[in-house]
Amino acid sequence: VLLLPLLVALSLTLWHTSLAISESIAILEDLQLKPLLDYFNPSREYVRPFFYMTLAGIWRGAGSIAGALAVYKVVHIATVLLVIVLFVWQLRARTALDAAAATLAVAVLVGAPGFRDNLENLPLNQTMIIMLISLLVWALLEHEPRAWSGQAIVVLTVVAVGFKEQGLVLAMLVVSAWWAGAPGATRRVAATVAALVLVYVAVRLALMGSWPLFAQAVGYGFTTLSTDEATEYPRYGLYAYNVASTAANVLFSEPTAGVFRIVQRITQGGVASWHLNELLSSAAMTGLILHRAIVLWRRRDAQASGTFRVFVAFAVVLAASAALGFNYTRDRFGGVAVVFFALAAFHAIRAAAAAALRGSGLRFATVGIILLALATAWQIRVIGTFQYARESASKIRTEWLVDLPERRTNFAQRSVYLQIMDTLVPQSAAPLPWGSGPNPRWIAHVLGQR
Amino acid sequence: VRRTRTIFRGHRVPALVLLITIPALLSALVLARATRHHVAWWAPARPAPTAASLLEAVASREVAVAHALIWEGQSTDVRLPFEHRSLTGGRRVTVTPLLLAAALGDENMVLMLLTYGDQPADRLTSLAACVAYENGRESIGRAIEERYPGIDRSCPAWRPQVPLLQQVAP
């Protein structure tokens, strides 16, 4: 019941959010003009054949441009909702305390930057799809093996990699689950997935074209370096910085895209309450998870414990996600890690609550207040995510209002581009149902501003 | 005391459940309210737009708000009197959304108004181009000239200045 308003609010907001004029139309134009096989070329900088096949399948099956655009939205919204619902199902809450811990764990998932950043409809969102697949794979790994579950894990991993190479983290997840003794992670499944991924990586490296040193702008300290400026810095030092930044964003909500915006505000002035809320609530949850992981690690039967495997999975997925963002970092790269961060948070919260029940009155009161503070902080972040989604919709709409004439002129020779763009104009320029006025200052102070 | 402690200990689970779920309940109420009213959840009612609303939106550089007003049927040919003897030579001129946006150098607003607006190609449109060129915003001036070919871009001696145009905004 508590989840329903969130699901409805997110669904409606995403339904009213148009596709961005800056990138989406070019993707759809490519679908029309390029042969599908081109997307399987392993020498491309970005290899995402299943993503483009899905887009193309919907495009051709829908019958009209407007129909295809509507289906893209429905699929994207369904993906987001399924991630949340599957996450809750994965928690298997049986008691009232479990259910309470689950509300906080959902808030950790939805309030995290890695989830927020993947609400963008590109059309569809590859990382959100991988987040969904990671939950399915995890469910299979944690279940007793069935006749088909091994093949399903392999196929799902391949599909995830085919959507975006961020899906490679699933291979690490499967192997680590086998190492930690997950019932569904048989040696055969782990070996198959590892072999497939090794072959894939070898082919990619062997056929690698001349890629730029840095594919996109790189955040560094308090500033953002252009791709040209980034080449003036030690290459591997900047790669290490990006890797650390992706991991830190999941753990502390800072830095964002490599830029320490909260630290900058704290040290240079202009800090708002949402800065502190994001930093402190993330740090506190990370501390709680770390504490629980250490407790489990010290137990003799730790490796046989299903709970411990969640912590192992989180550590491995976090490391893999961070490593894949070596070239540049964005919040969305932490999407899959955020799912396991929230799963680990659930177990850590539940354990803290259970310990409080057994402890003295003082301990109970202290833990209770800490959990209340954590729940409040993360629920504010959930509203922040909702607000972020609305502001994203407004921003995209403003871009449509402002950039349309220029794009009509610049792309006058590209008839397919113009056709798609003109189809999108009525819904993209229509006023948003929740209005377009500026936010009151206190809203920006508490929830942040895009 | 022992009895109180026993009762308290017996209610630890519900107490802890409440402590964790109360923020979730409040968050759910906020989201439900936002969805139900379909408006900014901190402001359930919006005032009806007036003729001056568009100029106000332009003055505050809210492109989306200005566009929403146009979409709702607000004409962009809104004119408010503007007079300053030392600058206008005693003339009483009017300010329009396009002129105000050009004077503010708000290129996004100008582009939106040029796409969705209905301002006639009159002397105030010429004045908007003139003010843009005067302020060194050639791209704005060119955009206006492209939309209204043949307008007179030369500036009258009494052209209004930017700070005063800002003051005229409602």
Descriptive keywords:
heterodimer, A: 450 residues, two-stranded antiparallel sheet, 70% helix, globular, B: mainly alpha, two-stranded antiparallel ribbon, 2 strands, 61% helix
How would you explain this protein's 3D organization?
- By secondary structure, chain A is mostly helical.
- Chain A is built from 19 helices and two strands.
- In chain A, a hairpin with a 2-residue loop joins strand 1 and strand 2.
- Chain A is globular, with a radius of gyration of 22 Å.
- The two termini of chain A are about 30 Å apart.
- Helix content of chain B is about 60%, strand content about 5%.
- In chain B, strands 1-2 form a two-stranded antiparallel sheet.
- In chain B, helix 3 runs parallel beside helix 6, helix 4 packs parallel to helix 7 and helix 7 runs parallel beside helix 9.
- Chain B is rod-shaped.
- The model of chain B has no long low-confidence stretch (mean pLDDT about 75).
What fraction of the residues of chain A are assigned to beta strands by DSSP?
Answer: under 5%
| Helical content of chain A (DSSP H or I, runs of 4+) | over 70%
Which parts of chain B are unreliable, with pLDDT below 50 for 5 consecutive residues or more?
none
Radius of gyration of chain A (Å)? 22 Å
The tally of helices of chain B reads 10
Sheet with the most strands, sense and barrel status of chain B = 2 strands, antiparallel
Share in helix of chain B? 55-70%
Based on secondary structure, the structural category of chain A is mainly alpha
Multimer state: heterodimer
Major β-sheet annotation of chain A: 2 strands, antiparallel
| Low-confidence region ranges of chain A | none
- Return the average pLDDT of chain B rounded to an integer: 76
Distance between the termini of chain B: 67 Å
Strand line-up of the largest beta sheet of chain A = 1-2
Gross geometry of chain B: rod-shaped
Mean pLDDT of chain A: 91
Shape of chain A: globular
Radius of gyration of chain B: 27 Å
